Structures are given as structure tokens and as C-alpha cells.
Amino acid sequence: MTPIVKVENLTKHFPIKKNALARRAAGNVKAVDGISFEIAPGETLGMVGESGCGKTTAGRTIIKLYEPTGGKIFFEGEDITKVSPAAMRSYRSKMQIIFQDPFSSLNPRHTIGRIIAAPFEIQNITPEGGVKRAVQTLMERVGLNPEHYNRFPHEFSGGQRQRIGIARSIALKPKFIVADEPVSALDVSIQAQIINLLDDLQTEFGMSFLFIAHDLSVVQHISDRVAVMYLGKIMEIAPTTDLYAAPHHPYTKALLSAVPVPDPNTERTRERILLHGDLPSPMNPPSGCVFNTRCWKAQDRCRIDEPELLQIGASSVACHFPE
Amino acid sequence: MISYIARRLMYAAVILLLVSIAVYAIFQFLPFDPAALTCGKNCRPNLIAANRVRLGFDKPVWEQYWLFLTGIFVGRDYGVGSAAFTCPAPSLGYSFRQNACVTDLIKQALPVTLSLAIGALILWLIVGIGLGILAARFKDSPIDTGSTVFVLIGTSLPTFVTGLLLLIYLTLKNNIIPLNFDGYISIFDNPAKFFIYFLLPWITLAFSFSAIYTRYTRSAVIETSGEDYIRTAWAKGLKSKVVLRKHTLRAALAPLTTMAGLDFAGLLGGAILTETIFDLPGLGRMSLKAVNDFDLPVVLATTLLAAAIVVIMNLVVDLLYAVLDPRVRVG
Amino acid sequence: MTRLLDINDLHVTFPTEDGDVKAVDGISLTLDAGETVAIVGESGSGKTVTSLSVLGLHNRKRTRLNGEILVHTEAGAVDVVSCSDEELRKLRGSAVAMIFQDPMSSLHPYYSIGNQLAEAYRVVSKASKKDALKRCVEMLDLVGIPEPQKRVKEYPHQFSGGMRQRVMIAMALINNPRILIADEPTTALDVTVQAQILTLLKELQREFNMGILLITHDLGVVAEVADRVNVMYAGKVVERGSVDDIYYRPLAPYTMGLLSSIPSVYGKGTGRLSAIPGQPPSLISLPEGCSFASRCSFASQVVGASCATDAPHLIEDEPGHFARCHLALADRRTAGAKFAAKGGNA
Predict the structure, then answer these.
(1) Alpha-carbon gap, residue B113 to B107, rounded angstroms
(2) ipTM
(3) Given C190, C193, C247, which is nearest A264 (Cβ)?
(4) Please, which residues have CB within 8 angstroms of residue C315's CB and are 6 or more apart in sequence?
(5) pLDDT tens, residue by residue, C120-162
(6) With an 8 Å Cβ cutoff, is B226 touching chain C?
(7) How many independent structural domains does chain C possess?
(8) Of A301, B207, B309, C104, which is least surrounded by CB within 10 A?
(9) Residue A150 sits at the chain B interface (C-beta within 8 Å)
């Protein structure tokens, strides 16, 4: 089966802008630095990592909101890496994005009817039964009251706004959706509602998701496979159950052990791997394995050779000394 | 830091060079013969020709420009024989209208403008910042309402109205501030007379600026008071005056440096309205008069001077800001 | 055990044009030395307002405070609600210190770390500048900042988020306060850094025997560090008990809903999450009865009282374990067992 999305050695570098005093262009932020993966039809790939690991940039580059610096992107087998922004429009009906912040990603001057109808308008599509009817069906589908068609975003709570964003993104029944931290701005009880909604929509429409989040428990709940990113690179990519039950990469292990679990007895008994220090600058990542500065298993080799993603069971791991 | 200043100074020099070229070029396109402007209505052709040679207008444009440019550094000689004279460095040209070296004219006008601008700056900073802080601290009180009224009046009354009203009511009708017939007096010669001479111009000029600065200060202080680091300052158990002075004002007022520096630079180019109303022989009036009289060397020199002041004040403001805000300094 | 803090029937109200916002609607809690008491709740539950009012850091002009907040110091108890501004100021930093959610914006960008720490120290201890600097370096070292001698001269923007939160902790503890209020101390941080900060807080608590009042929305963090828990909803405490009570024997339907809403890293499988339907009520027009009634799946099973019209009271159902619910205790025990965290069986 052709994967919906295939990414080969994708890189995205941002040149550093000069600041007020120093004028030298100091180099590049290597936000995404050579990642490769595939997403099958109907599959959800979770992408986790700490802030600055490049997961959001990766998501935006894959649907070409950013021009990639290098590598290749295939959508349904077609190479879209070099497709111009104008020509990308025909692909936009098949790939969509849901943003993190339900407060700033909706135009405050537009009614939600207009916001949700925007994809129809842009693609010049008149759905059966008219735009209004289609929008109201969508609103009902995502759990909004269709009578609120003419209201403005500020009249809705955070969870409801995220539903508006979701309605907009599924309007054209896309085959692939990048969900960029769709629930991290929401309270837990509302978060669960949205996760369930995304789950249901996927079952109903069979779309694929790239689900980007920093919350490992949310990702575990919703993903079929999970990719762990660190400093622009994929450290480990594996089926969800394998990754959470038997992490192979030291970083994955540390990350999992750092997540507090809502269970006091587990918290009292479990061993926690504490990483020391902070994330190195993505402008000047460490040589060899990018994780070597914080890794308790690092040897000389890790500081020189960059490990490649190698297969261990069902997992792919970029480590010289996997667990 | 030093290399940064050096680089900025170099940029400044380039900008000024470009400004001087631009102004020089504009004059070349004017439909006047500069030599014909050197004498009155009854100019005879031979006088014009003589003046043309004396002032160097017979030379090609680029050479004239070169002479002007080198004149700034080494001075400039005009004419030949017994009619020869020199404008010593830094020479900004020779005004054939006023028969004087432009540099000397500027030397007379600059102190007036400088006194006007500095006095007004001090006045509006005190009033504007003071009133702004009071309005912010006693938000929604009568003080705040009063400041709002002041801001409204200050920003809507044009300078010439304020100036004339002050002149009419304080000097002409009630004679609170006596009329001055002596002209400009330096602060070093007679401080009392100096203050009386400049009091009304200062108030006039500072009035609208105070209003703008009050409004800015008020909103900056209110906004900063809501910052997380101000809450941290309270949580430390600091006294409210320390929280205000050390924490709130430092952050709220730092951007004022930029505002004040650029406003001040603008005034040094000449506060034309104020100088005209109060008949002050400053740079503003001088350039206005020069434009009216087609006194091209003076126009060229004052334009260049104003540009130089703005460029230099920009640098000063940036450096000051770097001193105030460590994020700029280290980055 | 030394009692450090007593909050009795605290009400915090913000008058607005649309009506009074009842941010905190009668909460009572206690804090002893050496223990961590958590206040858990979602946005708008009143947890942050409660924590800010202990130090009088809310907008005092625009807020009405009723009830009692007794801070027990060596010199006796002070009631924050009724004391003078000067008395309140003297409590801050010395008896009660606070760390905040966003370490990026909680330090003054224009002053060096040393300056800000020394200021906090000297306002209480009146030490000389030299002694204060020495103390700053000591504190930075204590909270695990490498090269404290050098870093004390640096500015906040030169520190990472985790390091800034360490600086905030150093600043809070510089005068050995007996109470530390931590308002979402790790919410803005990444998980690996969060683990470092929580571990640090636990170590420092053991060393100085502080009482920590932890405000958070994260039930994982609570399970990791808290001894006792208060679950807040719409300005009220709906359940109170030990961590084990709350996680293994929840008695309030809201707590059960919260526990079942969180996906767990230690797989419950990938079934549907049992989300709480609807949204919290507006704090301006709270319902007459139970604030949670409209979202509660048990409301229909209640006998003898009406959730829509009778507000339930916080009742001690088991020793030290309180809940606010009309449903029969036996029914709630059965329901609670279904929603309890899995580790309780092990």
C-alpha cells in the first residue's frame, strides 16, 4: 500500500536573524535535521519531544507551510517537495492542519460559519445542499450547536474553539491532518472530549494523522506509532505498545520515566532517570549523537559517530548502545 | 562594544555623505543661477560673472561639491587678490545673501535653539513623567481624570495657539512675564534674564510634548505593574516605593529614552513655529529665512546639520538603551 | 506537628460590571510543617486565586476577601485578611514565599540574578551587601546551578527555563520561609526539566521541613509530590483527603471524572477516554444547587435531595476524607472503585 505521506531525509534550517547590536548572521537553527518516516492510510503517527526539538517545524514543513531546506516529501506517492505554493493549493484539500492555540488561530472578525466554510470557498467547491447546510452538518458532527452559525469566536470556550478548528480542517474530508498540539491548551476534562472526537472522526473518515504533542500520555492514547524527536532528529520510532513498554533509546527511556503518573503508589516505587543539564542549542548541536551531552551511557564513540536509525524488533533506534 | 560604535559612526558618515550629495543635486536642478542670486535686483552681468568666479560657481558641479566637502575639514578660500577671504574649518560654505560664512551664522543660532530644546526637554520630562506616574498610581481617581483632560488639551492644541495664548495673557495683558527687547542672552551672562527670555517658549514647546509623555508614561506604568516580575517583587516583601521605583519605573521608562532622544533631535533641527512666535534667532528661523531668500548655502548647511543631529542622536539613544537593557547589551 | 497555615471559610469575590465573580466560594484548608498540600483543579476553579490571596498578591483594591487566612509565624498568628499592609509585607518572603508558573517572565529582565536575590535577602535580614552576595552564591549552589560564582552576575535571559525556575526557588528560600507556595511550578517546563525541579523541591522540603502549598492542574504531579489533596471545582473544594484517598478511593464524582479523563502512560489500552461532558459553570451565575450537577452522570441516581436545587456540603465521609456530594456513600464507593488509579490494586 502506498503511504499517504513519506518523508525522506527532510531538513529545515532557519538562518539566524541579526539582533539589535550584533549584525553577523550567526548561523542556522537546525530545527529539523534529516528525518525520514512514512504514514500509512488511516494511521496515526505520534510525534513527541521537548520544546525546541523541531516537532512543530517538522509538521509544518511536511504540509509545506515552510519550504523544506533539503530532503523529499511524498504525498500519496507524488513528490511534492518542489511544488510551488500556488500549485500546492490543489493538495490543500487533501491535507490540513489543526493548530495548538484555539484563541489565536481563528479570525476574531469572522463568524464561525464563515470560518468553517473557508475551505469550500478557497477550493471553489460547492458541497451538495449548499455551503450553509454543509457547515451546519460539520458543526453538529464536531459537537457544536448548528444554530450558533452566526456567532463569533470570542463567544466560545477554548474547547469549543478547538472544535471549530477541527470542523474547518475536516470540511473537505482530507486524507491527512497534521494536529499540532491540539489539546495542550485545554483543561484535562475538555482535553478528553477533543481526543475522543479526533478518535471518532478518524474511524469515520479513515484519515491519517500526524499527532504532534509534548504530552506522552496523550500521544500514547491516540497513536499507532510514535516518533521521538530530539534536537531536530528522530531518536526512536516504533509501534506505540513497543515504544512505551520497551523503549530502546536512552532518551525515550528518560522521557518516559520523567512523566509523572497519576498514581501515587507507582510514583513512590518507580525509579526515575534524571537527565542533567538543559537542551543544547539547536544552532550548535553536539557532534556525533546529539543526545550525548545528557546521556548516561555516552562513550567516546557517541561524541564522534552519528548513530543511524537501525531496526531492533519492530522499533527503529538511533543509538550506538540501545537498551 | 567599541567596534560596534566604530561601525555605527562609519554608517553615520556614509548617511551624511549621501544626504549632502542629495541636497547638492537638488540645487542643481533648481531653475536659478546661483550667481545671479548673489546681488539684488539691479545686478549687472559683469558683477554676476565676478561673483560666479569669486564663489566658485564657474567650476563643474563635482568640483564645487568637492570643494564644499573638503571645506568642512580644511576651511575654504574664496576670491582672489584683495577681495580674497577665508571661511576657516569647519566651513559649511558662504552665504552671499548675508555676506557671512555659514559656520558663523550657525554658531550664532545654535545656542538659541540648544537652550530652547534642552529647557523644553527638561520641562516636559518632569511634567510628563511625573504626571504619568501619578495618574497610573492613582488610577481612576480625580488625578487620573485630570491628567486625561490635560492629555486631551495638550495633544489637540497646536503650538501656535498655545504660544500666542501664553503671549497674549501672560505678557501683553497681564505683564506677568515682561516683554523682552534685548534679544538672546546667554545663560552664562545673565541667568535670570535667560530664564525670563526662554520661559514662555519652553512652556509652549513642552506643552504638547508633556501631554504625549504623560499618556505614554501612564500606560507604560500600568502595563508594567501587571507583569509577572512585579508580582515577584511584591512577593519578596519589598516596600511599595521600592517596587515602584526600582522595578516598575525602570522597565516602564526605558523605552522613553528612545522617544525623548528622537524628539530632542527633531527640535535641534529647529522648532520653527515656536522660534517664529517668540522671535527667537534660532536654527529653525534661520533655515526658514534661508529658504525664503534662496540662500542656498545656508539651506544646504542646516539640512546637513539637522541630518547629522538625527543620525548622532540615534546612535546615542541606542547606546543608552543598551546600558539600560541587559538583553540588548549582551546579545 | 507544627501548624503553619489555616484558611477558614475564605471567599474571594471580584466585582465586575456583569456581576460578582465568586472566584473562591468558602474554602478551608490547613498546612503543617514538612507536608505538601495540593490544590488541584482546572482553569477557573479558584486554585490560583486562593494561593495569591495567602500572600495578598491579588489586586487588593478590586477584590473582596471574607473569611480568615491565618499564617502562623514564630511570633504568633497573623490573619492576612484583616492585617495591615505593613504586617502583610513583613510576612512576604520571610514567613511565606512563593514561586510562580512562568519562570521566563517572573524575573526582572533588567537586573542581574545576584541583584534580585540579594534584594530579597536584604529586605528581611538587613545583611551587608557582601554577606548578601555570599548568601546568593550559597543558594544558587543549593538549588543546583553550576558555577554559581559566575552565574550570580548574569541576567535572567542568559538562563534556560529550568535554570530560571531554580533561581526563583533560590530566591524564595533565601530567608528560610516556613511556607512555600508553588503555583503551577512546572507547567511551563518540559517533562525532563519538570522531573528535575520536582525532585529538587522534595529534597529542599526534607532539608528545611517546609510546608508546601502546591497549586496545579496536573494529577501526575500531585501523585508524585503531595501528601494531602484538595480538589477544587467552581470555587469550592469538592473533595479532600490523602493522595491515596483521592486516587484509589475517590468519593466525589468530579474527582472520578478527572481521573478517568487522563490517558495514562502505563497503558489502559486505547479505548475511549471517559470525558466529562459539558463545561464548568460561569462564576458570575453559579447554579443554585451543586455546581457540578449539569455535568454529573450520577445526578439522576440521587435519592432524597435534588442536585439542581440543594447545594451539598463538604462532609467527612471517612476519617480525614471529605467529599461534597448527595449520592449515597455506598454508591460512591462502588463508583469510585471503577475510576480509581490502577496502582491501588497492586
Answers:
(1) 11
(2) 0.90
(3) C247
(4) C322, C323, C324
(5) 999 998 899 999 999 999 999 999 999 999 999 999 999 988 8
(6) no
(7) 2
(8) A301
(9) no
Dihedral sign of CA atoms B129, B135, B138, B139 in order? negative
Residue A65 to chain C, least CA–CA distance (Å): 26
The residue among A198, A266, A271 with the most chain C CBs within 10 A of its CB, best to mutate, is A266
Given CB atoms, is A24 within the 8 Å cutoff of chain B? no
Mean pLDDT of the B246-263 span = 92
Q: Which C residues 12-41 touch A at CB under 8 Å? A: none
The residue among B238, B305, B288, B250 whose CA lies nearest residue B72 is B305
Residues written for chain A:
323
Cα(C52)–Cα(B186) distance, integer angstroms = 58
CB B95 within 8 A of CB B102: yes
Beta bridge partners of A210: A45, A178
Residue at C26 is within a domain? yes
Please indicate, yes or no, if residue C241 is contained in any of the structural domains. no
The parent domain of residue C109 ranges over 1-225
In contact, C123 and B246? CB cutoff 8 Å = no
What are the counts of helices (DSSP H) followed by strands (DSSP E) for chain A?
Answer: 11, 12
Strands (E), chain B: 76-78, 85-87, 94-95, 100-101
From B259, B262, B257, B251, select the one nearest B326 (Cα to Cα).
B251
- Phi and psi of C306, rounded to 5°? -110, 120
What are the chain B neighbours of C90 within 8 Å (beta carbons)?
A: 237
User: Does residue A257 contact residue A276 with C-beta atoms inside 8 Å?
Assistant: no
Element (H, E) at C317: strand C314-318
Count other C-beta atoms under 10 Å from residue B14's C-beta: 11
Task: Kindly state the percentage of chain C with pLDDT values over 90.
Answer: 70
Digit-coded pLDDT (tens) for C69-88: 999 998 889 999 999 999 99
- Amino acid, res. C302: V
Say yes or no: A22 contacts chain B, CB-CB below 8 A: yes
Cα B256 to its chain centre, rounded Å, is 17
What domains can be seen in chain B, in order of their start residue? 103-326 (1.10.3720.10)
Work out the minimum CA distance from C76 to partner chain A, whole angstroms. Answer: 35
**Choice between C342 and A243, residue whose per-residue pLDDT is larger:** A243
Find out whether C221 and C215 touch, Cβ atoms under 8 Å: no
- The answer to whether the CB atoms of A188 and C262 lie below 8 A apart is yes
Same domain, C257 and C212: no
CB contact under 8 A, A192 and C261: yes
- Cell 530545527 -> residue: A31
Identify whether C258 is part of a domain.
yes
Q: A5-94+174-247 sits in which CATH class?
A: alpha beta
**B329 Cβ under 8 Å from any chain A Cβ:** yes
> Strand, helix or coil at B129?
helix
Coil/strand/helix, residue A126? coil
The residue among B76, B80, B49, B15 whose CA lies nearest residue B297 is B76
Residue A276 has pLDDT above 90, yes or no: no
Name beta bridge partners: C241: C229
Residue keyed to cell 533565601: C174
Same-domain check for residues C121 and C170: yes
Cα separation, A5 vs A38, whole angstroms:
6
Element (H, E) at C238: strand C236-242
User: Residue C62 belongs to a domain with what CATH number?
Assistant: 3.40.50.300
User: A47: helix, coil or strand?
Assistant: strand
SS3 C97: strand
pLDDT higher than threshold 70 for residue A18: no
Q: How far is CA A171 from CA A99, A136, B31, B302, in A?
A: 15, 11, 67, 64
First to last CA, chain B: 11
Structural Rg of chain A based on CA atoms: 21
Whole-number Å distance between alpha carbons of B229 and B247 = 8
pLDDT digits (tens, 9 = 90+) for A158-168: 888 999 999 99
